[in-house]
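Researcher: First entry.
Model:
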Amino acid sequence: MALAKTLTAVGTVALARCGGRPFGTHLFSVWPGAAFAATAFPVRCSPGDNLALHVAVAQAPPGSALVVDVSGEPEYGYVDEILAVAARTKGVAGIILDGCVRDIAAIAHCELPVFGAGVAVREAGHDAGGSVGQQINMDASGPAPLPVRRGDWIVADDDGVVCLPRGQVSAIIAETMENVSREREIIDAVCAGESTLDLLGLDPSRVTGWDGGADQAGRCGRPRSLNARREGRAAEGHPRPRLGPRSAVGDVYGGD
């Protein structure tokens, strides 16, 4: 799906800056490099029980992200090898849960993106109910819980997890693309030797111990437009640097 590929390439950092709602910072990728974007299929497990997760694997549309609220009892291995393999086989795009997982090596081997709150050997039960497909509230990077509804977009990578509420996705993507383009120009300027203090209009005099020269101090706080910078450097015969192939920005825009 084109939208999923675009969101994955743009990444959680850029999306969070432009309206994507971050999940709590306690969540981590079970294996490095895992990343995906998909629509949410919410799951609420009863404390210490993963029956609802098994139901969700059987019922969720292929390509969905299972977003799992474990009802405030994280210290169980809610996702294990069996459940991960079943989810992968059924076409689940990934699992986000505010509880623990186990069988880390096996989950990595089956390459199912799983983001959890920790690792726990203790087995979860399979008979205490729960819910699937209904709105849940997840811990967020802020004082208020993060509501997740079926159909919201979930994006996850090594930097974290964000939610794009349905109905706001187009606006968030449009703003993100503009922001990524501006950031690309800043990175190009940094590669060309410009100072981040100058580019971002930062005031280093606020930092005790700043000993910048008069010329540098005079420029800081008054950023010159990036277009003017590019024109000036081109006139001096300096080519515009290119980002490496692993840059998320470069992946989205494919270079100039």
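Researcher: Second entry.
Model:
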Amino acid sequence: MYLNLNQGMDSLVARAHQIFITMPTKGGGSSMNTFTRRCNKETKIRKFGFIESVDLKELLVGSLQVKSVISLHVSSDTGLICLAMYPSQKTLMIHIHCEEGERVISGVKMISHHMCRMNYQEDAPLQYLYKPNPKGDCCQHVYNKTVITKNETHCILDAESMVDWIAKGHREVGGGAHKLLTCKLYDALQENAPQLVFLNYKQIDKLQTLLAKHHCPELLDELPIKVNMATDDEQKIYLYDSNDEKGAVRIEEWLDAKGPVLEWALNLRSEASCQAKTIHMEDELFGCPDEALKVTPESIKKW
């Protein structure tokens, strides 16, 4: 069922005592999680995928009031299935969705920037080598098998090594819709009928406004909150392929050329199931004006 963010969705948010917002990596989650912490006036950063934990007692101790809005990244269907098994008219689930091909491309761009900033957890002193460039105007890092040549404005990554990272589903590349929207999840949603809304990630600014209106109106003048967004002053990133006569190309050009076959070539959706339902859901979600969709057992059956 299509939802108008200013009417139907507003009504759902107003009635809900507890709201759970879930999203895959590169689905606007960093912005939403930062908003949620500020809305709840908390400083604690929840562990990635904490809702998939078997022990959630932390929600019941330390404070009489449970935070009314909880948002988190999810990397599998486990947490969503668990939420679906406890339906209530007082609980609202909002899942932020991003088309998988688009999400993977965004994830590749993000990990390339991480590599150029060298801020992976694996960056132990013995794991990369720093060498001054003979010309003195650049420097070269070796991070595992990925060779990075960079200065303040440009960064060049080895294409073959970069492909290896993508194939591993590393960091933001992994944890997409094929691991979340599974047959098991759709079955759980049909059997339990929780109050659930799918929302396009491009609408999170409006979602923040809607949530703030009912839960933290003092934030309204500070919205939207945006985190991990690309900026024009970021390093220009190139991929170097020794087997390509063009040599180094901008990562955007590389993704434009390789994007349509990237997931297939690397078998990134090997764990996927019930993709037809997801595709039909996307047709409805992206086709409605506010890109918000209330999910019911009847709609899932139709998909």
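Model: Note on the second entry: The mean pLDDT is 84.
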